[in-house]
Design brief:
Layout (H helix, E strand, L loop, with lengths): L5 H21 L3 H7 L3 H8 L3 E5 L27 E4 L6 E4 L13 E4 L10 H10 L9 E7 L8 E12 L5 E12 L4 H5 L5 E6 L2 E6 L7 E2 L2 E6 L6 E2 L4 E6 L3 E6 L4 E5 L1 E4 L38 H4 L1 H6 L13 H26 L1 H22 L9 H20 L1 H8 L2 H15 L6 H33 L8 H10 L1 H20 L4 H10 L3 H8 L3 H12 L3 H29 L5 H45 L1
Parallel strand pairs: 1-11, 5-16
Antiparallel strand pairs: 1-15, 2-3, 2-4, 5-6, 6-7, 7-8, 8-9, 10-11, 11-12, 13-14
Helix pairs in contact: 8-9, 8-19, 10-20, 11-20, 12-13, 13-14, 13-15, 13-17, 13-20, 15-16, 15-18, 17-18, 19-20
Amino acid sequence: MTTLTTSTTRRVLFLALLIGAFSSFAAPSPASAQTATPSSEQQLVERFAPIFMLKTQDGACDPDGEPYAPMSVDVVLDNREVLLRQLGENNPVVQVGPGAGDLYGLNEGFFLDFPGSALQPGCLYERDFDKYTGTTTGDRRPTVYARIATQADEPGKLVVQYWFYWYYNDWNNKHESDWEGIQVLFDVGTVDEALSAEPVGVGYAQHEGGERADWGSSKLERDGDHPVVYSSAGSHASYFSSAVYIGRSASSGFGCDTTGGPSDRAESDVVLLPANVTGPDDPFAWITFNGRWGERQAGSFNAPTGPRDKPRWTDPIDWQNDLRSKSVVVPTGDGRGAAIVNTFCAIVEKGSGALITLQTSPLRLAVAAVLTLLAIRFLIKRTSWAHVAELPLVARRRSGQIIRSALGSYRHRALPMITIGLLYAPIALALSSLATVMRSFPLVGPVSILIGGFVNFFAYVVVNATVASYYDQLSVHRADGAAVTPLDAMRETRRHAGRLAIAFAISVAIVTVLFLSVIGIPFGLWFLVRFQLMPQAIVIEDLDARAGLRRSAQLVTGRWWNTAILIACFYLLIAVARLGVSLALLVGVPSLPWWVFSAVVMLVYVLVAPVAATGQALLYGDTVASERDRTETPELVDA
């Protein structure tokens, strides 16, 4: 037996200890191996993590794209450029670069303050987002926070919530930070059961409300088990598809949301929130922050509070049940609706801008308002008759007489005129059907809107021709007392329908080509006015398409300004009536279904278009009479 020396024994012991230490690092212990396996909760939230469709931004500071993406709150925590302030005189700074622990348990008297001004963002927030997150345009990977929630009075139900934190809300209600999200609903009570079950529904947060869908609904787009979220550019409301949505309440947002493409597809990284926060040392201590996640401002411009302050945090099932079953989508191809909604969106946006100006620079807004009123007064006083003053006195008097006569004639013959106006209804229905069919094909939205505009104009041509035929027959048969009905006028218009369509197509082609050339726009306007009496000339004088256009141009010659002003008044009457009623409905009746809204818009046209058509018929009669006077006067002089 070999006897080991003391030094040899020490070497052996040292070598054994070294090997043991190395083994402890190289081989995982049972505890560490268990930690490396994702928990059931983590598996569940990863399985249903949302996929985002973010509106493509063509370049830095492009206002039509979405520059932001849901991000980690760690970007603004421990950030020396972010301040924690307390509400008070001058809102003193409590801490520079607050961390999660510094926010623990703070109430609404505290708020974060980012670099920049929330009401005058410029491009600073976008640049800071790129700087803090290290992303570039088109290179955005969202981070979302997941939470498994239940409701005490709804046993047997479980919700997986996904919370999205956005750095800046660049919409009508501009503010720093934005908390949005969706949730997936299960008809089971435990996580393990949810892993082996299919969800029953989803809820997408939109402003102060949201929209729900069944898991098997056709409107819910999924990539496997991952719901696809179309984030509205600027407002970050979550929608089910690419479209333009209109909101008329706090629940649906007051204004227009757009999720239209092109969009960038972005998968999300999921961070699982704990069931409880243990204290200020907890890395998720920020969850208990009850203050504002951004600059304090008045009203809707105030930064939001955190997730724990939202109703869906404590009552997720009730929140889901209260969601809308659908959102109001502006149909592609509905030219009438699209124009009105675009006006509504623009008015809301301008109103928001005025409120921002009122807060940031009230003197500037007051000066702008005064100058605008003075300019309007000047225009009314000095230019309302600028062009008419160049006309003969007789023409000026006739212009006023025509407008008054049109209103009076409509008042006395309202029923026949409304009956003729109903001609627009089948045309509008056919237009809506065409738009519905065209929406099923890609890249035809603008085409359908263009076609819708042309069809609307042709509908007005038909109404014009029918009203002119009605009055013409009325004047012919008045002597013998024969009754004239709107059906008689409609039959006459139908007999000339082909000629009217060809003449309309020729006039549209000429005017469109001139307008597209840009340099020819003045000539396009000139031709547009010269062709306005075409429907009356064709049906009353029984002319073909080309002769009808030539006759209209002949009658307008020497009376271009008079015709232009009167035609503009008639078109303005229709536009103001439709727009006024439509905006009143959009604002005053938020729950009005879109089909009812479209029907009301159509009804307004049915009621008002014959007034304008009556005016154009009287204008045609006046020009014919003036022409007769010009040709007969020399004969009288010679005699």
